[in-house]
Design goal:
By secondary structure, this protein is an alpha/beta fold. This is Aldo/keto reductase.
């Protein structure tokens, strides 16, 4: 597995990490995963060169963190660059976010909330420090917290050794500029795939300019770009309201992937490998998260980091994706 520097730090991270939202299970994923399979998937990561494990309290109300914590008990802590997040709560008030099952989630990035959240995350994860602590979603009214206050809390946690670096997800260039006024920002997480390229307009340039690692989540569009779904697939759970899982769009995407078959032969790889390799080909400051839930899946996905697309093939894939994007 190829590695890269995390932002402006000296921390080496694998170009691909494991995202554990699906491993957390719950209503968003139509129930819980088999626990031992989830633990085995996480514990396999270092042996195949993956050292980034991403989780969050908001993934099934802390269950993802609990599972990661169970897995960490059988691992060397220094072998893992552990990412977790703050700002999405269900046990204290904030600005309305969304509902998962019958439980309302809230956005809250106040200093008080962050200081409580970190302690609960450390306990669930069974560790005394987090490598990258991220704000999960940015603060909004009516419980708006200035970024200055949020960064004050994060910088205090960093000085205390409870976190090593600061990251932020789901943000605008204006947010990034504000974060940078008050400290170092080493990781920005955003949704990005060959079918969802919106961040290229503004987020990509500012991350490149400020030497911030840009970590793509949902690079396989929740499984659509795996190439494994049948033509008559019926989306479930978190997929249902997504653009590319609407019937007409899903068929267009599948037609596009059919046209990738020659490229798969050329690079001796799968559709999923090709999808992930395309993201990594967009710049050496790009990182990505694989939402694998089994050992076989993560082993298959890491092959993507070894696929080196030519510029002409990466451009061809982009043109195909642009052609089906209304």
């Amino acid at each position: 597995m190829k590695t890269m520097k995390l932002g402006k730090t000296d921390i080496n991270i694998s170009r691909m990490g494991l995202g554990t939202w699906p491993i957390g299970g719950g209503p968003a994923w139509n129930g819980d995963r088999e626990l031992q399979s989830s633990i085995d998937t996480i514990r396999t990561c270092p042996s195949i060169g993956v050292n980034v494990i991403d989780t969050a309290p908001g993934y099934n109300f802390g269950n993802s963190e609990v599972i990661v914590g169970k897995a960490l008990k059988g691992m060397k802590r220094e072998d893992v660059c552990l990412i977790t997040k703050c700002g999405i709560t269900w046990n204290r008030k904030g600005s309305l976010f969304n509902k998962v099952g019958d439980v309302q989630l809230y956005k809250n990035l106040s200093k008080e909330s962050i200081m409580e959240e970190i302690e609960m995350s450390l306990e669930r994860l069974g560790t005394d420090y987090i490598d990258v602590y991220m704000t999960h979603w940015q603060s909004v009214e009516p419980y708006f917290t200035p970024i200055k206050e949020t960064m004050e809390a994060l910088n205090e946690l960093k000085a205390a050794g409870k976190i090593k670096t600061i990251g932020a997800a789901n943000m605008t260039p204006e947010h990034i500029k504000e974060y940078l006024k008050y400290g170092q920002l080493d990781l920005v997480q955003a949704k990005y795939s060959i079918l969802d390229r919106a961040i290229e307009q503004d987020l990509v340039p500012i991350c490149r300019e400020n030497k911030i690692t840009l970590q793509a989540y949902s690079p396989l569009e929740q499984g659509l770009l795996s190439g494994c779904l049948p033509r008559d697939y019926v989306p479930t759970g978190a997929q249902c309201n997504k653009k590319w899982f609407q019937p007409e769009n899903m068929q267009k995407a599948m037609n596009m992937m059919d046209n990738w078959k020659d490229l798969c032969k050329k690079y001796d790889c799968t559709i999923a490998n090709l999808s992930l390799a395309w993201v990594l080909a967009q710049g050496d400051f790009f990182n990505l998260l694989s939402g694998a839930t089994t050992v076989d899946q993560i082993k298959e996905n890491v092959k993507s980091a070894e696929v080196e697309l030519s510029k002409s093939d990466a451009r061809l894939m982009r043109e195909m994706a642009e052609a089906i994007d209304d």
